[in-house]
Amino acid sequence: MISILGCGWYGLPLAKALVNSGYEVKGSTTTAGKIEQLANAGIEPYILDLSADRSTFPDDFFDTDVLVIAIPPKTRSGEGEEYLSKMEKVVASVKRHQISKVILISSTGVYADMNKLVDENTPPAPDTTSGKILLAAETLFQQQSGFKTAIIRFGGLVGPGRHPGRFFAGKQDVANGLAPVNLIHLDDCIGITRAIIDKNAYGHIFNAVAPHHPTRADFYTQAAEKGGLALPGFILKLDNWKIVESKNVPRILAYEYQTDDWYTALDHKF
Prior knowledge:
With 270 residues, the protein is an alpha/beta fold. It has a single domain, classed as NAD(P)-binding Rossmann-like Domain (Rossmann fold, 3-Layer(aba) Sandwich). The chain is 31% helix and 17% strand. The strands form 3 sheets. The protein has a 7-stranded parallel sheet, with helices on both faces. Helix 1 (11-20) crosses helix 5, helix 3 runs parallel beside helix 4 and helix 6 (216-226) packs parallel to helix 8.
């Protein structure tokens, strides 16, 4: 049994993929309108809201073998401060139900733009509110002794509903045009998660970023052009940057990225 806390852009396709592979899957949402969609996909649906003012906490959602936590901090909408208290509730439920395997979705935002290559052995030093909150959540789970957590740090997310051509379409004088991109396609988000489950690879951190890092100017201009969108204009300077390397994904999971060339992907994946 696998429970997915947060059936959003990534969580719902992951749940569907796992169901199609024969797993029993429980999925949570905060909106009643999504219950039928989950049920129709063969997912056992739950309303679960960890917000302090509207807490809905069905205990049997946590009767599971593996828990995938896929809820973002939502710092832009002002919910960031609540995120750690939500994660503390989740940790308490994991302990109470003696779940031994957890997958926590984090972000490469835990690395600041350090003007260098970073990998899973690089100490994170976030310089954004979201990055700091996510690193604190990672630390909370890593400190637990009763269960093992695999942490996946996703790069920039692209795929269905997230066409990269839209990110800067029509914008001009976009800074840092020569900085490299650190992106991952939804197909690889799901593939890496499934590899962790299949290989029982808990207790590790995985940077989930495709190994191709073209410049922002080149990639997003081509993405807009291929998408039939207004072309952006970039300032061709290299300011602050990072290249996020994914060492543990090939080494521990023996996983090969399905999207390893972004220019080819623009022709076939969007």
